[in-house]
Structures are given as C-alpha cells and as structure tokens.
C-alpha cells in the first residue's frame, strides 16, 4: 500500500474537444506550462525573498472571497459537539485524556503547516493582524486558510487556489528549499555521491527529513530534530492522556508514540506503529498519520536514469517525504462490528489476487490477516488529515509500505471517518441522481453502498505486491489508488458468493460506484485519487461497463462491471510487480483521457453542486482546547 486516502467531492478540469492523442499532448503541454510557472516563481522568490517577511498581498478579490466563503460554495463537515452522546457516555478518565489528545493533534497541525509551506505560519499571523485592523478580505481569506490549512490548495473543480500573491505551490512544499529546482536537486545529489557522501544523501532521501541548503550541498534533518520543541510538547500531552485513559492497550501505544516524538529514531515510530495497528477494542482513537502524497520533488529522481542507478548501487531508496496528520475520535462500537464482518474473507481475497504467486503481500493467505478496523466518530482532524483541498479523507489504511513497522512484523489498521461520510442533504442527492443516472437504476443507488465500497478499497491496499513501488515515481500513487478501487470492485461477486453481500447489495455497490466515478471537472496529474477515477471511467466505457442514454444519463451494465474490474486490476498489479516507470507512465497517459461523455456529466454535476471549497467544524475540540 502506498497511498490510501480517498476523498469526497471528487473533482475535475475543463475538457478540450480533441481526439485522445491530442488530449494527452495537451495534458503534457499543461504540465510543462505549470513547471515553467514554478521556475519563474522560484526565480522571483530568490530575488525577492526579503519582501515575504511579514508583508503579504492578498491574492483573491473581494468578489471571489465572498463567493468562496458563501454557504452555497463552502461545504462544512461537522465533527462532534460538546453535547454529543458519544462524548457524554465516555468515562471521566477518557474525557480527561481526550483533552490532551486534542491538544497534541493541534500542535501537530502547526508542525505540518511548516512542512507544507515555509510561509504558512507567518501568513496566518499576518491575517490575524489584518483582521484585528478590520480588514474584511483578510477575515474571509482566513476562513479559506483555516479550511485548506495553508496558503495553497486546489478546489473541487481542480482550480489552484493561492491566497497570497507571489506564492504558488512548490513541488518540494516546505520540505525542500523553495528555490531548489529539479535539475539542481539531481545535480547536487550526483555530486555528493561522486564525493562518497552516501550517508548524507541517505538522510536527504528519507521520508522523515526536512532538506536545507548547506553551502553548495544539501543536508537532511530529521523532522523530530527540526521541530524538537513542538514534538516534545506533543509527547507531554500524550503522556498526560495515558495517565487517565481507561484502556491499557491504548495507554501503551500513547507511551510508545510519546517516546518516538522525543527522539529522532525511525525504529521508535515502528514500535509505536506496530502497537497502534493492533488496537481494536479501545474507547478512544488517536493517530499520527504519515503519508507522502504531496512531495513532488523526490519522485523526480526515477526520471534521471544515471542518478537512479547510482542510488541503486549504493542501496539508497529515494522515498517521498511524509506529511503529518492528526486524528482524534471516539470509537463507534456498532459501526466497528459491521466493519469486522469482512475480516474473515481477507485471506481468501489475498489468494485470488492477480499473479499472487509472484510476490509477498501483507495479508497472509493463512492464519491472522493482521488487519484491525475501527469506525470512528471524529472530534478533530488536523494537519494533513484535516486539509480540505478539493476533498477530505473518508478513511485510511496505515501504515504505508515504506514504514519500518511492517518490516518488523507489524500489521495494518483501517480507520473510517463517520462524520465525513454522512450525507446531510438527501434532497440535493436526489437532484444529482435525477440529473445524471438512468431513472430505472436510481433504486440501486445507496449512499451506504459507497461506504461498503470504501471498506473494500481500504482493505485492497493491503493486497497485492508488498514492495513500495518507488520506481514508479510520480505515478506510484495513481497506480496504487487504482489498484485499491479495482480490488474493491473485482471481489464483489466473490464476496456475494461467500455471503458478505446480498445480491441486492451487489447491485447497489456496482451502480453507486460507477455513478460516483463521474467527476465535476478534469483533475490534474497531481491528484492521484481523481486521476485514477478518470482512468477507470475511460477503461469501463471502452469495454461496455456503462452507456450514456439518449437523454444524457448513465446506465450501468451491471453484469459487465466486475469482469472489467478484474481485467484492469490484473494490468495494474502487473505494472506494480514490474516496477517499470515507462510502463506506468504509458498506462496512465493511455487511460487518463477526458471524454465528451465525462464532460457532459460534469456540466450537469456543476449545475447541481456549486461547492468549490470545504471546511471542518470542531466544536468539541475547540472547547477542550480552552480547558
């Protein structure tokens, strides 16, 4: 499993009415244009860096800010409130522990903002000062900043949002020098390797390091050392939570995690992760997520054949940088019991994966599947987990393949987010179905079926090749997310035969999934979850999984979907086994094509749903922070 995050508000980009090959060419040209703009911005940053110290110009106009912060365009996901029955039912010791867990999660958010962009904290301070002066535009900008948790993001139409002038998104985020280009990065690494500085290069290329300039070289600093004071404060809060929490297993995990926050030792994280992955019957949920979606710099190394060979000869794997998220919640027992129904079937699914005899996978085909699962009522999602950037996390399967805990015998844990998946406006949902889905098939659409599909998606991350797939570069996450989707669909018939689903539920999952695969606009290549959706949509259309009726509605050919999903799953797993960057690139480009039918449905979706941005509202967490 590489990346295991799926999001709501699946998105897209404007379609250009050209043949498939021209579309691919257009995509490449767009990427090149974006790279050129980044280079120009980097040059400007190098020349004018002093001007960014405490003095910013807001980028969005008053009109645009008013639009994006209006309730019709800004959706809100509400976490638990202070009077929530789930909170009131907790033991007093767990209520006290929850307060410390929330405080730890918000300290983590401060750290991740710096990993995301070197100007985030300073810009936040600037907005607060401007708001105090009565600046209304700063007030509305702060709403968007708090929602996306940073200066830069992307909205639900895949439009890039920059809240401050002169600050565009950087390929290396805040974990690489902001003026570092891909070419200079490769050149410096090559020079350092030629000078025998292998250990220094290894520190630069770990998922835990923040990279800084050191003369004409680079140096990698473990993020625990870089943000030592804040991590120590987090550790203190976790230790305090362990003093009052009522669950011994949970307390053991908190103490292990606190220790890992005080010392820059990956093995300490491995021990904490290994314990966390065993947690099943705990009242509270606390997670530090470490995922590497956003680093677009490290993955470029595989495109440099000479540098890649030098690293391979030295046994150095260039692993993209982790970004950190915090999740605090209360485990929902009823929802968790429902999730566990699938666990008994996981070894059977592992046996039925394509080419299963060619690789080691995480879920054993015999004995314990090493997979725990919990459904969680959320108190707070912070940092990387809580960033509302086009969408927000529905569920996660962790730890990822690159983590040491899996190498020392640890398992995985799936956590599902109840407050994120709830649909509050059923009328809006029906309006959407009336616009895009064949009326005769609307009886099969069920929002709960999306949750069932998500369960399959998250468990499929634990199936397939165990290796991390770093050799696939910028396509590794797209390929992995595609595998998880196709794994979920490909096994529906088998799980129906085994009794997991009824024949009616089978139809509901298939129709709901195919319908939800249609996006509001075309995504960019950096949006792994959405790119794979377009790929699937094209693949399914060419093989007859669905038709567009004369009325412009989706009609799902139900019995064709699972066989086609099996076919795509086999192709994806083959690419992961081979680990060939060029094959992965060709596969993505061949299938990432925005068609006329996708644009037809997208236009209808945009009329029904005006949402551009989203945010979370965490009343209980805010109350606990004040105590």
How many β-strand stretches?
A: 14
Beta-sheet strand percentage? 5-15%
Morphology call: globular
Helix content: 40-55%
Mean pLDDT: 90
Low-confidence parts: 1-52
- Derived from helix and strand composition plus strand pairing, the structural class reads alpha+beta
If you compute it from the alpha carbons, what radius of gyration comes out, rounded to the nearest whole angstrom?
23 Å
Number of helices: 28
How would you characterize the overall build of this protein?
The protein has 627 residues and is α+β, with helices and mostly antiparallel strands. Helices cover 51% and strands 12% of the residues. The chain is built from 28 helices and 14 strands. β5 and β6 form a beta hairpin. The longest helix has 29 residues. It is globular. The N terminus is likely disordered.
Keywords:
two-stranded parallel ribbon, globular, 627 residues, disordered N terminus, 6-stranded mixed β-sheet
Give a short synopsis of this structure:
The protein has 627 residues and is α+β, with helices and mostly antiparallel strands.
Task: Give the arrangement of secondary structure elements.
Layout: E1 6-7, H1 20-48, H2 62-68, E2 74-78, H3 85-88, H4 92-116, H5 120-132, H6 136-148, E3 152-154, E4 160-162, H7 182-194, H8 198-204, E5 209-214, E6 217-222, H9 223-226, H10 228-244, H11 248-262, H12 266-276, E7 284-291, H13 305-313, E8 323-331, H14 333-339, H15 346-351, E9 371-382, H16 383-386, E10 393-398, H17 404-407, E11 412-417, H18 418-421, H19 426-436, H20 447-460, H21 476-490, H22 492-498, H23 503-516, H24 528-542, E12 546-548, E13 554-556, H25 558-578, H26 581-591, H27 596-608, E14 613-617, H28 619-626
Parallel strand pairs: 2-14, 9-11
Antiparallel strand pairs: 1-10, 3-4, 5-6, 7-8, 8-9, 10-11, 12-13
Helix pairs in contact: 2-6, 4-10, 5-6, 10-11, 11-12, 19-27, 20-21, 20-23, 21-24, 21-25
């Amino acid at each position: 499993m590489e990346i295991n995050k799926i999001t709501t508000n699946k998105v897209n980009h404007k379609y250009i009415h050209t043949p498939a090959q021209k579309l691919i060419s257009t995509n490449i040209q767009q990427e090149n244009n974006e790279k050129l703009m980044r280079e120009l911005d980097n040059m400007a940053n190098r020349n004018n860096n002093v001007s960014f110290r405490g003095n910013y110009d807001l980028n969005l106009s008053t009109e645009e800010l008013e639009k994006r912060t209006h309730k019709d365009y800004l959706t809100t996901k509400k976490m638990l409130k202070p009077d929530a029955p789930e909170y009131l039912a907790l033991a007093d010791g767990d209520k006290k522990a929850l307060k410390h867990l929330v405080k730890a999660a918000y300290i983590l958010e401060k750290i991740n903002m710096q990993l995301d962009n070197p100007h985030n904290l300073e810009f936040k301070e600037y907005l607060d000062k401007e708001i105090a002066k009565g600046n209304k535009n700063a007030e509305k900008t702060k709403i968007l900043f708090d929602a996306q948790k940073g200066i830069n993001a992307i909205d639900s139409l895949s439009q890039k949002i920059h809240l401050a002038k002169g600050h565009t998104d950087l390929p290396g985020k805040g974990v690489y020098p902001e003026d570092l280009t891909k070419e200079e990065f490769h050149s410096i690494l090559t020079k350092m390797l030629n000078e025998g500085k292998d250990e220094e290069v290894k520190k630069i290329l770990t998922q835990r390091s923040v990279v800084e300039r050191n003369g004409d070289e680079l140096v990698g600093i473990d993020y625990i050392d870089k943000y030592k004071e804040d991590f120590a404060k987090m550790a203190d809060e976790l230790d305090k939570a362990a003093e009052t929490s009522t669950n011994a297993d949970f307390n053991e995990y908190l103490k292990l995690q606190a220790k890992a926050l005080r010392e820059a030792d990956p093995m300490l994280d491995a021990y904490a992760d290994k314990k966390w992955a065993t947690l099943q019957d705990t009242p509270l949920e606390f997670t530090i997520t470490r995922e590497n979606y956003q680093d677009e710099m490290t993955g470029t190394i595989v495109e440099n054949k000479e540098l890649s060979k030098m690293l391979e000869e030295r046994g150095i794997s260039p692993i993209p940088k982790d970004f950190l998220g915090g999740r605090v919640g209360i485990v929902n027992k009823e929802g968790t019991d429902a999730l566990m129904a699938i666990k008994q079937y996981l070894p059977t699914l592992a046996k039925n994966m394509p080419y299963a005899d060619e690789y080691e996978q995480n879920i054993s085909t015999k004995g314990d599947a090493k997979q725990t699962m919990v459904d969680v009522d959320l108190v707070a999602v912070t940092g990387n987990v809580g960033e509302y950037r086009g969408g927000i996390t529905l569920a996660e399967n962790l730890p990822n393949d690159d983590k040491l805990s899996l190498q020392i015998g640890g398992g995985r844990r799936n956590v599902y987010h109840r407050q994120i998946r709830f649909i509050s406006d059923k009328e809006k949902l029906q309006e959407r179905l009336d616009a895009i889905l064949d009326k005769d098939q609307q009886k099969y659409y069920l929002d709960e079926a999306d949750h069932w599909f998500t369960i399959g998606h998250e468990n499929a991350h634990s199936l397939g090749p165990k290796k991390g797939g770093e050799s696939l570069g910028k396509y590794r996450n797209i390929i992995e997310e595609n595998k998880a989707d196709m794994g979920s669909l490909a096994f529906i018939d088998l799980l129906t035969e085994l009794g997991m689903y009824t024949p009616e539920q089978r139809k509901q999952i298939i129709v709901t999934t195919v319908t939800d695969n249609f996006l509001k606009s075309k995504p960019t290549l950096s949006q792994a979850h959405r790119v794979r959706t377009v790929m699937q949509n094209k693949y399914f259309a060419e093989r007859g999984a669905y038709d567009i009726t004369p009325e412009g509605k989706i009609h799902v050919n139900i019995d064709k979907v699972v066989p086609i999903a099996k076919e795509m799953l086999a192709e994806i797993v083959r690419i992961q086994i081979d680990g060939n960057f060029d094959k992965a690139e060709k596969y993505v480009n061949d299938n990432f094509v925005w068609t006329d039918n996708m644009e037809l449905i997208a236009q209808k979706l945009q009329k029904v749903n005006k949402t551009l941005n989203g945010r979370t509202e965490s009343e209980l967490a805010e109350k606990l922070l004040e105590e």
